[in-house]
Amino acid sequence: MTKNIAIGVDIGGTGIKAAPVNLKNGKFTDDRYRIPTPQPSTPDAIARTVAKVIAKFNPSKKVPIGVAFPGVVQHGIVKTAANVDDSWIGTDLRAIIRDYAGHDVHVLNDADAAGYGEYKFGAANGRSGSIFMTTLGTGIGTAMIVDGTLVPNLELGHLIIDGHDAEDRAAESARDRYGYDWDQWIEQLQTYYSEIERLFWPDLFIVGGGVSKSHHMFLPKLRLRAPIVPAELLNGAGIVGAAAAAAAEAKREREEEKAAEKASKKQEKAAEKASSKA
Ligand code: BGC
């Protein structure tokens, strides 16, 4: 695997997907590989599957790998697990994937990854202002990017609207759960996005998740002040964003190491100077 490539892994409620991503243009350099999410979706079962999807691409130790998780991930630790097994809460995601995959990984929330992917390579490419990313899948993932800065772990899929957790009614999974036809689901989406708009006033909404492939069926019917557009990377936004975030993190680490080396050399020199004077 060559330079400028990173691997993105997206852990979802129904599938675990991965692909190598060209960091220059955000395109997959190989076919996406998907394995259904094991049930129960415990940490060991998922980490084993993540290791399998990574191994498919046989990356060298130098290739950055990003793993997107469908819950709050704070400093590498999983804090919520609405759509995977509860035993995830408190798990060190980074460590468990490292144990199974034998590779260091960067970890983040799945909607954050999708938002970052769309900001780097998709519908929000380089845009300033406030961008509100939503992913409609098993749950509703949300991310906000303000003038290029991602606000991590925004959990607005769980906004309480009319006494209900919003994702229960407006996620894609709600269509099956309640047998909604398009119009019924669109009504739920309208309520949801109107509430987000009332509270956050974004400049642009982006909609990702599997159902974004059928965006023409619902997006034109939503009435909002801000434009609402499908994710350009469609369902791949999480993979692309996870890969790009991992590469950015690897770069930051390299720069920090260099700066620390430089500082310690400077200190050594100063110490030598001081001792030669003494
Ligand atoms: C979780 C979020 C996640 C979203 C999409 C929600 O239930 O709380 O963290 O981003 O689902 O997977």
Describe the structure.
- With 278 residues, this protein is an alpha/beta fold.
- 38% of the residues lie in helices and 22% in strands.
- The protein has 7 helices and 14 strands.
- The chain has a 5-stranded mixed beta sheet with strand order 3-2-1-4-7.
- The longest helix is centred in the last third of the chain and has 41 residues, at 237-277.
- The termini are far apart.
- The structure holds beta-D-glucopyranose.
**Helix amount:** 25-40%
> What is the mean pLDDT?
96
Task: Describe the largest sheet.
Answer: 5 strands, mixed
> What small-molecule ligands were found?
beta-D-glucopyranose
Strand content: 15-25%
Intertermini distance: 53 Å
Judged by helices, strands and strand pairing, the structural class is: alpha/beta
Order of helices and strands: EEEHEEEHEHEEEEEHHHEEH
> What is the CATH topology descriptor of the largest domain?
Nucleotidyltransferase, domain 5
Tally of individual helices: 7
Instruction: Count the domains.
Output: 2
Side by side, the strands of the main sheet go 3-2-1-4-7
CATH H-level superfamily of the largest domain: ATPase, nucleotide binding domain
CATH domain class of the largest domain = Alpha Beta
Radius of gyration: 21 Å
